[in-house]
């Protein structure tokens, strides 16, 4: 952990002292993310683990400001260098303005340290007074606001995603591009999935526990837990394995797979097992909690499989077998399975809403380096599919290079497979390739294609 930089500024009020302290900590964490290129959530978690002095409000100010800086970094970096102290405070105050953070006393302290002019402060005050607590401003309106505060600067919505992103994910429609940027500039709710319990009962119990839970219109077992932070260890349904956190876009994958109660499936890149648990839950729903089917879950990471094992035990699920993928040889039998899910390693551009730092610490290579690996995993995994059964390919990327192009390359080399038409759960459009865009149902981004072995 790097040492926090020291400031020569003098704070004269309690709010300014706390704002100055927050600034020092946030700057240290911000620089560490950019320097090490480690995920911001991991760096923040490590910091709070080592510095237990921070209360819940301190943690919220530090964490939300840090992630807000990355969310708007495409604009904020145009103000100047973050290594200039005055500019850094201008960035902090602008972040609070764009995010509409409730800690106005700290934001005003940052404005003071930034030495904003009376004209700049007048623009900010007018906006704050007109906005109140309603967060109804669009990305275009926020870009105009920032341009008015920092005259001579011109920011526009497309800059909130890096230039290389538009190269690997070309979007011809200006309307769709704006919708994507708008979604990427906001945080999705916490989506979850109910297991071995009626969904309406789960929602009712969660609401009684003070959680902003609500039903989902798309899937019978999906629920929203609102946007507020939740300590899952305090949630009884989670501890009992009856609620699992899983983004709505991720839940699309299991619903495209549609595993039947008596089928044998293989989750080839299971990680910690979110989709494995969903597949098993869907199997149990198919025959009212009595299933002869099973799922084999594989990964190259031992710790991820250990976490999957814990989650399966917590849910009380049988029928799940762990098989580490140790070599080029398959950990399952060839031409044997009813279904194979390849949730391939990818650039994760579809998850940028939750991880805004990744768009600035990654570069185009995070996309360009993946297709060869993805095609290799898909081709190897396909050997386990028996005739008449299904192969499902998915990523949490929005780039066609990792999605349609990989599937097309696979099909050109494997004539015994063909695409199956699926229904997009949010748009109801039928297609052989389903891309879930973040703005369609307030979720992450995802891609999925289903194939059958002829």
From TrEMBL:
Which superkingdom heads the taxonomic lineage of this protein's source?
Answer: Bacteria
Question: What SUPFAM superfamilies would the database entry show?
Answer: S-adenosyl-L-methionine-dependent methyltransferases (SSF53335)
Q: Where is the active site?
A: 396
The segment(s) forming the SAM-dependent MTase RsmB/NOP-type domain are 180-454
Keywords (A to Z) from UniProt: Methyltransferase, RNA-binding, S-adenosyl-L-methionine, Transferase
Write down the Pfam families for this protein, in alphabetical order. Answer: Methyltr_RsmB-F, RsmF-B_ferredox
Q: Which PROSITE patterns match?
A: SAM_MT_RSMB_NOP
| Gene Ontology MF term list | methyltransferase activity
Give an example GO biological process.
Answer: methylation
Answer yes or no on keyword S-adenosyl-L-methionine.
yes
According to its UniProt record, which protein family does this protein belong to?
A: Belongs to the class I-like SAM-binding methyltransferase superfamily. RsmB/NOP family.
Return the PANTHER family for the record. Answer: NOL1_NOP2_SUN FAMILY PROTEIN _ ANTITERMINATION NUSB DOMAIN-CONTAINING PROTEIN (PTHR22807:SF61), NOP2 YEAST -RELATED NOL1/NOP2/FMU SUN DOMAIN-CONTAINING (PTHR22807)
Supply the name of the protein.
Answer: SAM-dependent methyltransferase
Q: Which organism is it from?
A: Shewanella japonica
């Amino acid at each position: 952990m790097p040492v926090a930089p020291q400031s020569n500024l003098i704070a004269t009020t309690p709010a300014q002292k706390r704002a100055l302290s927050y600034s020092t900590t946030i700057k240290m964490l911000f620089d560490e993310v950019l320097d090490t290129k480690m995920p911001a959530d991991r760096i923040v978690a490590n910091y709070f683990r080592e510095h237990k002095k921070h209360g819940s409000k301190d943690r919220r100010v530090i964490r939300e400001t840090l992630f807000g800086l990355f969310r708007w970094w495409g604009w904020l970096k145009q103000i100047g260098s973050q290594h200039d102290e005055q500019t850094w405070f201008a960035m902090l105050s602008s972040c609070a303005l764009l995010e509409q953070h409730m800690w106005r006393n700290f934001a005003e302290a940052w404005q003071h340290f930034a030495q904003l002019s009376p004209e700049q402060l007048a623009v900010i005050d007018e906006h704050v007074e007109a906005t109140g607590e309603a967060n109804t401003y669009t990305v275009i309106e926020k870009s105009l606001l920032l341009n008015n505060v920092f005259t001579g600067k011109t920011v526009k919505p497309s800059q909130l995603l890096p230039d290389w992103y538009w190269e690997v994910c070309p979007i011809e429609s200006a309307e769709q591009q704006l919708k994507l940027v708008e979604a990427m500039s906001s945080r999705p709710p916490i989506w979850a999935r109910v297991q071995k319990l009626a969904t309406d009962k789960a929602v009712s119990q969660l609401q009684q526990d003070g959680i902003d839970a609500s039903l989902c219109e798309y899937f019978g077992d999906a629920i929203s837990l609102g946007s507020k932070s939740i300590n899952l260890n305090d949630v009884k349904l989670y501890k009992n394995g009856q609620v699992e956190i899983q983004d709505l876009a991720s839940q699309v994958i299991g619903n495209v797979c549609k595993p039947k109660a008596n089928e044998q499936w293989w989750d080839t890149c299971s990680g910690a097992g979110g989709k494995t648990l969903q597949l098993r839950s869907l199997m149990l729903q198919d025959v009212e909690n009595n299933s002869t089917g099973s799922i084999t879950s594989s990964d190259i990471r031992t710790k991820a499989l250990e976490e999957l094992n814990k989650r399966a035990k917590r849910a009380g699920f049988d029928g799940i077998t762990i098989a580490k993928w140790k070599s080029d040889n398959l950990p399952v039998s060839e031409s044997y399975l009813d279904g194979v899910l390849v949730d391939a390693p990818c650039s994760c551009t579809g998850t940028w809403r939750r991880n805004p730092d990744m768009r600035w610490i990654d570069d185009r290579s995070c996309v360009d380096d993946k297709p060869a690996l993805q095609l290799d995993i898909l081709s190897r995994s396909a050997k386990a599919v028996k005739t008449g059964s299904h192969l499902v390919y998915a990523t949490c990327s929005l780039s066609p290079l990792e999605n349609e192009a990989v599937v097309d390359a696979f099909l050109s080399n494997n004539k015994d497979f063909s695409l199956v038409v699926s229904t997009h759960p949010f748009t109801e459009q039928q297609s052989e390739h389903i891309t879930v865009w973040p703005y369609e149902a307030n979720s992450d981004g995802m891609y999925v294609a289903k194939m059958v072995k002829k």
